[in-house]
Amino acid sequence: xxxxxxxxxxxxxxxxxxxxxxxxxxxxxxxxxxxxxxxxxxxxxxxxxxxxxxxxxxxxxxxxxxxxxxxxxxxxxxxxxxxxxxxxxxxxxxxxxxxxxxxxxxxxxxxxxxxxxxxxxxxxxxxxxxxxxxxxxxxxxxxxxxxxxxxxxxxxxxxxxxxxxxxxxxxxxxxxxxxxxxxxxxxxxxxxxxxxxxxxxxxxxxxxxxxxxxxxxxxxxxxxxxxxxxxxxxxxxxxxxxxxxxxxxxxxxxxxxxxxxxxxxxxxxxxxxxxxxxxxxxxxxxxxxxxxxxxxxxxxxxxxxxxxxxxx
Amino acid sequence: xxxxxxxxxxxxxxxxxxxxxxxxxxxxxxxxxxxxxxxxxxxxxxxxxxxxxxxxxxxxxxxxxxxxxxxxxxxxxxxxxxxxxxxxxxxxxxxxxxxxxxxxxxxxxxxxxxxxxxxxxxxxxxxxxxxxxxxxxxxxxxxxxxxxxxxxxxxxxxxxxxxxxxxxxxxxxxxxxxxxxxxxxxxxxxxxxxxxxxxxxxxxxxxxxxxxxxxxxxxxxxxxxxxxxxxxxxxxxxxxxxxxxxxxxxxxxxxxxxxxxxxxxxxxxxxxxxxxxxxxxxxxxxxxxxxxxxxxxxxxxxxxxxxxxxxx
Lengths: 312, 312
Description:
The structure is a homodimer. Chain A is α/β, with parallel strands linked by helices and about 300 residues long.
């Protein structure tokens, strides 16, 4: 039984994952905001403690950047951890056990390859389109790490080279700068979008919040500004995916995260832009699918780092 | 001793390559123009025949597209070969010997990794910028083939998504559509460039031809239109390379082919665009260098397919 851990800016999750990838006994905690490094660590340590007995390895997904494979983490949205030796601290708590760590988007991609639509697929890109846009590459059936563990950063493929919006990475015109949820909601708000208007009454309160999920719901309900925002994101995704498959000759791209349920308003323009740019036979075979795994994907992938270490 | 073969639209080359990658006894022949499949085959068979005795394997680089690894070739610039079973025909001529074939740009990248600037580098992209723009990816020290042997097509990373020039692949705005030699010379001619003017007298006759090489020479000599063309190519290359290293976390990109000797007028704008878009620490470490190997790179890489088959 593996102890799987998934650490994000708003919550931390831990679970037992068995060798088939089944997630058991999940525990969650809010990530303390504005907390110092030791407060964050104590929250995590308390979260995992009840799950500790009997585990044979520890797999961790965490927001980047991080040193890899050594696992000093500096998650963009957890300011209290800068060069925090997360892997080493966990190894200290679980002496003698394998402890592996990777970028959270990599874990989602690994999960999708191991237990999602990617089963049996040799060459795929697993994407997460959410607050950020990230991903992981599996080529020849094995996870591609790159020289520093940073392969898979499809969010920083350039889709608007001239005059594109500034990106959190310091560049501009990156896919992430265009298609991340907050960029899309900002774009839509500036053009008169009011969350929840089109989707009508009977909504959960969160569907009236300014979120990518609410924007997607309004697009599905026919709101023209929300539709235009989804089209903008879809085209940017299609262009980036065309570039990625030309470079890596992929069979499959999966899209997880908050926007993965956006349906035709996102996936229609995505396919249109992809087919416009990916014309050679080898590129035309590419399939793009919403991810099969949901919220637990990060935990499943974290466990796979330990369970299937020869491939991931 | 390996029999290495390099097949292009204007010439065919064959040589002995020893296990250290030294090229011996090179023979060349013009590729018959407007020839049928069997005429092309006879030219190749006659070329290799004197080199046949004693070889222990056959490695081939050929223009794409092709089926891979089976090696039915349909080189864009050799119309007489469509689904021509080149690997099978060579296997028939050399029964019992290993015969391996790959895209010619892949062979150049493999050569650069095996015997050029890429020695000891884990993650690199070897590029060829010439009549076309191609490349090959080595990740984790191994050649990446992709699902159909087509990984490495960096020429079709999208660098001008909206309104970019049409590309031979059927798409538009690809790096190749902007930066291939013929596109650059056409762009420069339309703006008043006259080959050889700036570079002055004392030129070889070929430097007065409408070629990317002549354009590069005129840029080095200060011709403003030629400089603008090199800047256009350099920026497109820099944007595509930024996207590639974000996706693959590369240590090194090498640039071979006709434009690799273009110097500062090409590499200056390339570095500028790359540094503008590749801002994260892992991407900043990337080095971009003119290829170490010259015209023989394709032969060296073709031989490596057989000699170092576990990596390439």
